[in-house]
Amino acid sequence: MHTGILVPERGAASDEILLRLQPGRFLRGRVTTATGQGLEGAELYLRPEVEEERSDRGLLARRVRSGPGGAFVVTGLEARPLRLYVASGNGYADRSIGGLVPVLASERSEDLVIEVRAAKRLAGRCISDRGGVAKVRVTVVATADPDAAALVATSDARGEFFFERVVDGPLRVTAQFGPYEVVTRVPAAADDVVLEAPKLEAATLRFEAPDGLLVPSSGHWRFAWRNGATLAPVPDFEWQAFGIRDAHASLDVIAARPAAAAFVELRLPGMARSFVPLERASSALTVQLDAACQLSMRLETPDGQPAAGGQVQVRRVGEPAFELSLRSDEYGSALAEQLPSGSYDISTGEARKRVEVGAGRGATTVLVAPPPRGDLEVTIAGPEGQAGDLHLFARRSSFHDLRRVRSGETLIFEGLPVGRYGLVLRAFAEVPGGQAGSGTTTKDVEVSAGRRVEARLFSTPASKKHR
Q1: Chain mean position to CA 252
Q2: 391: number of Cβ within 10 Å
Q3: How far apart (Å, rounded) are the C-alpha atoms in residues 93 and 73?
Q4: Which DSSP letter does residue 53 get?
Q5: Contacts of 445 (CB under 8 A, 6+ apart)
Q6: Do 181 and 175 meet the contact criterion of CB atoms below 8 Å apart?
């Protein structure tokens, strides 16, 4: 079976299409326990190893369950590396296996064998000298099992966290207190793991304002860190207020063991935001203030209407390079405030623009927002092992997708332009030497902006329609 995307030939008649096909590939294997016994009912979730933001529109993920003897097969795959997530439940730990390349039907290959291991519960508490610490990101990695999925949880209001299914063996538990990591190694899962926040010492900030500007008497700060070449706020860490006296302030932000990429982001009224690196050797820091700029943006649809709820990325070019993520309001407007002067790259989807902002001034720009998109999840129901060809097509655009599927499989299409789509499933029974019988099931679905729509098709050789 071949798989591919159907795209109308540019300039061709409306009923004429160009079909670009690639040989369909497959991935086949078994889920087993440590004793080699097949495990039925394990959920397998397959995604590309690397996803391209601009080109990956359409089918991105497949979800199936292992059958009798733990066997599974996924067909109609492209020739690209995949990552497989296995959630077996039933007291077994999840697994994550990367670098899998599907093969052609004509190629000889061994079935993939996925061995799941017994799981145990791990629980603990994140604390500081003031008690439990909420919103701490806790990650657990099995050090003796590279294919065990890394697990992530967030501490609750009392600082408590738990994991129901971790690998029974040595573990590395990491807690993210702001920009500072605390790592604990435990020989096995337990219910009393304690992760203590590092003790923070004061950093003295001395503010200098340009001529004609006064240093404000208060401000706000939050932790930030370097993500690649860009500074970004530490997740789940809210803005904190602080006072300024005689152009000086004291903040408890420096740990005994510094984080090389840790910063404090400062916002003072009327001033451009600034970023201060946190280094153990620098407990006294000078902050040079500058007049604030602002950037006003308007998002429009291709026909000139306001694009409400659009995601806008604003990235400063040069040092300090930082990025803001904004959403347009009901009028299509978005405002980036307290910016230092310089060049900014603005993007929404594939629309990009560079804007210059001068010291103490503002700038206004208009971007044409991409069409709104949503997700579609299609589940193929029917007799076990039933095969078929699924055709998904947009009613009012050029998007088409055609591929081989099996009953019990779920296909997840992401980033589809909103609108009405048609689903056609031609089911057949596979017999030695070919196919026997066929039946067609059809259905229409509406893909909505920012939502995932679920559809279910019943695969049967007998002709049957669903509307």
Answers
A1: 32
A2: 17
A3: 21
A4: T
A5: 376, 420, 421, 423, 453, 455
A6: yes
**Distance separating alpha carbons of residues 313 and 232, to the nearest angstrom:** 12
**pLDDT 10s digit of each residue in the chain, 467 long?**
444 444 443 444 445 555 555 567 889 999 999 899 999 999 999 998 876 654 445 767 899 999 999 999 888 888 888 999 998 877 888 888 988 888 877 777 778 999 998 889 999 999 999 899 999 999 999 998 888 888 999 999 999 999 998 988 899 999 999 889 999 999 999 999 999 999 988 889 999 998 888 999 999 999 998 887 889 888 888 899 999 999 999 999 888 776 778 899 999 999 999 998 887 656 788 899 999 999 999 999 888 889 888 889 999 998 888 989 999 999 999 999 999 999 999 998 778 899 998 877 788 899 888 778 889 999 998 887 788 888 999 988 778 888 888 888 999 998 888 899 999 998 876 555 555 556 888 999 999 888 899 999 887 654 444 44
In this prediction the pTM is: 0.74
Contacting residues for 223 by C-beta, under 8 A, at least 6 apart:
178, 179, 233, 234, 237, 253, 262, 263, 264, 265
**Number of residues assigned to the chain:** 467
Q: Give the Cα separation of 337 and 219 in Å (integer).
A: 15
- CA distance linking residue 145 with residue 161, whole number of Å: 22
Other Cβ atoms within 10 Å of 395 Cβ, number? 11
Cα dihedral: 127, 129, 132, 136 (round 10): -50
Reported as half-sphere exposure (CB side, CA atoms, 13 A), residue 18 has a value of 7
Whose tokens are 């309001």? That residue is: 329
The rounded radius of gyration (Å) of the Cα atoms in the chain is 27
Q: How many CB atoms lie within 10 A of CB 175?
A: 25
d(CA 344, CA 338): 13
Three-state SS string over 74-140 comes to: EEEECCCCEEEEEECCCCECCEEEEEECCEECCCCCCCEEEECCEEEEEEEEEEECCEECCCCEEEE
Q: Give 423's contacts (C-beta < 8 A, 6+ positions apart).
A: 378, 390, 391, 392, 442, 443, 444, 445, 455, 457
Q: Are 448 and 375 within 8 A, CB to CB?
A: no
